[in-house]
Protein 1
Amino acid sequence: MKVSIIGSGYVGTTLAACLADLGHTVTAIDVDESVVDRINAGEAPIHEPGLADLVAEHAGNRLRATTDYAAVRDTDVTFIALPTPSRKDGSIDTSLVEMGTESLGEALREKDGEHLVVVKSTVVPGTTAERVAPVLVEASGKQLGEGIDVAMNPEFLREGHAVSDFLDPDKIVFGAEREAAFATLRELYRPLTETTDTHVVETGLNEAEIIKYANNAFLAAKISLMNELGNICKEYGIDAYEVADAIGLDDRIGSQFLNSGVGWGGSCFPKDVAALIAAADEVGYDAQLLKAAVAVNDRQPERLLSLLDDHGDVAGQRVAVLGLSFKPGTDDIRESRAIPVIQGLLDRGADVVGYDPVAADRMRERFPDITYADSAAEALRDAHGAVVVTDWDEFAALDEEFDTMARPVVVDGRHVVGRREGLTYEGLTW
Ligand SMILES: NC(=O)C1=CN([C@@H]2O[C@H](COP(=O)(O)OP(=O)(O)OC[C@H]3O[C@@H](n4cnc5c(N)ncnc54)[C@H](O)[C@@H]3O)[C@@H](O)[C@H]2O)C=CC1
Ligand SMILES: O=C(O)[C@H]1O[C@H](OP(=O)(O)OP(=O)(O)OC[C@H]2O[C@@H](n3ccc(=O)[nH]c3=O)[C@H](O)[C@@H]2O)[C@H](O)[C@@H](O)[C@@H]1O
């Protein structure tokens, strides 16, 4: 099939490269010329394992990029993979999706034949039917079901595993109102559904939209629940990881996403949980459990720092922050727990030295005045304490580096550094 994709970020580029790999002809549309140039040059505009190879293989062949929305006319399906950021009150801002839809609709005015518009962005219930569809109808001059239609196909990929998650998903969700839209989506995903044992869920637009939020809210709340249990365990001197291993053996609980510690960050969990709380508020429901999940998450960085405080005042002392990205395998620092941790240390008057294998440059934009080390060893040297914020594998291998600390105290927020002689070790929940 001929597919166009509006927005070439984490989701759009992964979708574009993977659909090209599945045999479709794909046009990626982005307003950012540098993104377009990179894709056309066979380079991935974002870092994801396996993505550069796919872009290099298909660019100039089944994959091309442009800034020109007119390119959608030569395609059968357009995905909208534009950002849906949080507003100050937590609700999502759909203005980029609506602007993109308007440009798309205007371009489709001159197109003959059927066209399906698929919302890939994460949007609250009602967005596709009540915001995207009316803008599309108005801009294109066409009626739904008569030359044009809308569908919703949420994305569940994780950063750092985007390509493998897309090509081997647990489930694919199609939301639509008419059979023709479902048929197009089935055809598009056929190369995947025929070769993997993925489940396909066919449902309505609003249902597809909320399934995405329910998925993320469940996972975020699961981590917060484990953090709550972990905090209780810590007070009793019990290792919460032993407890998690045991409860995870119950199939009804499952062993994944039970890693307690300094909490969840990233571009999606915080934004999506806030958006669901705000959407619930709007329809008159007070989402108490989700609010509590956020409150527990917000508290973890301060709990980490109070464990460090127990070992002495850090004012005027060098303190190492190991890990700056929101999780290992990425340089993404959006909503990283390292941000409140660094801020908390600065508020205490500490002299902060941060280290991350890939995310230091990004964190430098947020905290230009702290020191950045080129290695964990350098960060630890002469430090009066260290906190571990990201579970990079290399931190598990640290050993003699701790001997160079002025005061060898480590507070581990990710259960990654081992206990060793000569080191005062504190686990956040163990
Ligand atoms: N990042 C992730 O891991 C996941 C994100 N999502 C959702 O997917 C959506 C997109 O997120 P990301 O891919 O992370 O965004 P992103 O910020 O990585 O990329 C967005 C791209 O859209 C482009 N853009 C902005 N306005 C445009 C316009 N009017 N026309 C064309 N291009 C335009 C930007 O230049 C940028 O390249 C969001 O709703 C997000 O919640 C869903 C699942 C996973
Ligand atoms: O909507 C999205 O964008 C995506 O959000 C998450 O993916 P992602 O944010 O890339 O990363 P995760 O691996 O889920 O980790 C999120 C945060 O939770 C933390 N986490 C994760 C697991 C765990 O057991 N404990 C824990 O604290 C991580 O350190 C990280 O800060 C979801 O896992 C994806 O399914 C979803 O598509």
Protein 2
Amino acid sequence: MSDKRENYISWDEYFMGVAMLSGMRSKDPSTQVGCCIVSPENKILSMGYNGLPRGCSDDEFPWAREGEDPLETKYVYTVHSELNAILNYSGGSLAGSKLYVSLFPCNECCKAIIQSGIVEVIFDSDKYADEPSTIASKKMMDAAGVRYYQYHRSNRQITIRV
Ligand SMILES: O=c1[nH]c(=O)n([C@H]2C[C@H](O)[C@@H](COP(=O)(O)O)O2)cc1CO
Ligand SMILES: [Zn+2]
């Protein structure tokens, strides 16, 4: 009989947990998104969260969702978690990898996901499922043969004291 510990976290809990932990770095007051890219051998290749490009101050650029002028909203400035994770990777090719993300990718991230050769997307929330950008993403992933499925929450509470 082995003495192996049994209640260790699964690969899916680990990678989605890492994605969610990464999202906790986000300064966006309404939606924090985190992403974790994983190789076919289950090695973590990259991580990202939604934020401003390097050099653009979190304290000077707007975080508003609405404004008379689009330049006063966050939408024109933020880099999405998935794009950040793709751009953060400096190890070569992401072909064949899997992407864990806490929110279904928008159409722009979807284009980058497809073009970088990522073959599987595991998402948690799909709260913008009815938006054209999400519908477009699903159309493109279907056409490109990128598999996507919703993460099955285990509801395990993971507590880290830091
Ligand atoms: O796939 C995504 N990845 C991602 O990082 N985001 C970011 C952009 C924004 O900072 C935030 C969405 O803001 P809001 O829910 O307030 O519209 O989430 C949004 C999406 C989907 O729209
Ligand atoms: Zn996006």
Protein 3
Amino acid sequence: MPAPQCASCHKARAALRRPRSGLALCGACFCAAFEAEVLHTVVAGRLLPPGAVVAVGASGGKDSTVLAHVLRELAPRLGISLQLVAVDEGIGGYRDAALAAVRRQAARWELPLTVHGRLGRSRSCCTFCGVLRRRALEEGARLVGATHVVTGHNADDMAETVLMNFLRGDAGRLARGGGLGSPGEGGALPRCRPLQLASQKEVVLYAHFRRLDYFSEECVYAPEAFRGHARDLLKLLEAARPSAVLDLVHSAERLALAPAARPPPAGACSRCGALASRALCQACALLDGLDRGRPRLAIGKGRRGRDEVGPRGLRRSGSGSNPQPGKPFLLFPPSRDPSSPLGRL
Ligand SMILES: Nc1ncnc2c1ncn2[C@@H]1O[C@H](COP(=O)(O)OP(=O)(O)OP(=O)(O)O)[C@@H](O)[C@H]1O
């Protein structure tokens, strides 16, 4: 059966069905709609004011690649300028190749790139890596004179985080997790996630139709992370209820915590001055724990922290471009190659 006409331009043949709406679109109309939706997220949420110098957290992965590309397209309309900031966590066999992709992107798009790091010590646990990378990204952004930081988290990432926080009973993080970003409390730069309402499938499709060059390998430590369980659960939920991802993202915005469950008001870290709900912020507590050889206790995990890391070798589906249950949405998959991210969708 021939593909239907594009429901937007009514000229070209449709190349895909949008996963949420089911609308059949050609590649050009899909990309235009995707960019318009990101523009709407930024403008309606007042995320990036005109004149902002925006540091894009560039990991080389599909999300930050798509984010940088879309913001570069929108920059003249938004009146913002962009800087790519990549953190080198020193993850052997992974980050070097990812950084090579970021360097190619910076050269192709003629965007300034700063590589900040190496974190070196944070190699064996995603919690360490995430917390210290967040700090390094803030430092890198300040170095280049940025006024705002953006990251490529998409709707699936956010829904996974909400699920993880529920599963851990982490009321503090649930309370902080809603919204499209943070306004820059405690002297930190304002941070936002312009792709937070975009589904992972559409991010991959956008990268495909715009022919973006990105690094699609999973971090070597990803199979150990608790996030993989949340991801698997989310896929099951999404197969039964396609709106589950966005419903979870929005639920985090609407949650109201009982007064007794609310985290204490944040103060300043006694060591670095960053926002902290205890004497030390999470990054300083982690470094302190590492120095004392007691990393888990330093972040208040102790026994509970064992949940953080799954048994080695436990196979879970990977990140980003994984097979998703549900209806096929690409009418003419250009690739059946299982090593291609699109082929695996
Ligand atoms: N090493 C890094 N340097 C700079 N920013 C990073 C780095 N790692 C992650 N980020 C930012 O945090 C976001 C979410 O991190 P995550 O771990 O999901 O990234 P990823 O899976 O490596 O790549 P991506 O999310 O870009 O596909 C990224 O989209 C990016 O904006």
